[in-house]
Amino acid sequence: MAKKSLPKSLQLGRAVEWPDSPEKAKLDRVPNPQAGTNYLVRFTAPEFTSICPVTGQPDFAHLVIDYAPGQWLLESKSLKLYVASFRNHGAFHEDCTVMIGKRIAAEIKPKWLRIGGYWYPRGGIPIDVFWQTGKLPKDMWVPDQGVAPYRGRG
Question: In 89, 108, 124, 150, which residue has its Cα 20 to 30 A from 17's Cα atom?
Fold first, then answer.
């Protein structure tokens, strides 16, 4: 079986500069070889970091992104670079979570996408943010996101 060549515009397989903001980050997509099949793809970013827009302090989250691909797959290296671009980005938890979900949905046009942002406590309060597109395709199995509710110590 011959390998299909991927576009040279992809970040995959070559050195690229780390983007210093989400706006400068590029999300790449590749053709889905199983486009006629409903299935789930999950990306987990357990060490997501951004900056509080008020205090400048770091904020940390565990992100879980689930999507049912359509014609496109999200290329993982570009997602890693995009997620890393938030390290110096000042935005509230809700804005970061929804912004990531909307950007991915716009780039790959999945059949369905959801993102769970499980933010670690600051000021004693954890914040969980959830966003999704449309309805889940019929006959899809979607496992629980697997992130335990925050219980504090003990």
Answer: 108
Amino acid identity at 108 = I
Q: How far apart are CA 64 and CA 68, in angstroms?
A: 14
Q: State yes or no: is 20 an active-site residue.
A: no
Residue 95 lies in a domain: yes
Q: Report yes or no on whether pTM surpasses 0.70.
A: yes
Contact 138, 37 (CB under 8 A): no
Give dist(CA 18, CA 85) in Å, integer.
7
52 is catalytic: yes
Range of the domain at 114: 40-134
Tokens representing residue 20 in the block: 């210093």
Position 47 in a domain: yes
Residue found by looking up tokens 């979570």 in the block: 97
CA-angle at 84, arms to 81 and 87, nearest 5°: 155
Model confidence pLDDT, tens digit, residues 106-130: 999 999 999 999 999 988 889 999 9
Q: Known binder of ligand: residue 76?
A: yes
**Rg for the chain, CA atoms, rounded:** 17
Does residue 86 sit within a domain?
yes
The residues pairing with 117 across neighbouring beta strands, listed in sequence order, are: 63, 129
Instruction: Report if residue 17 sits inside a domain.
Output: no
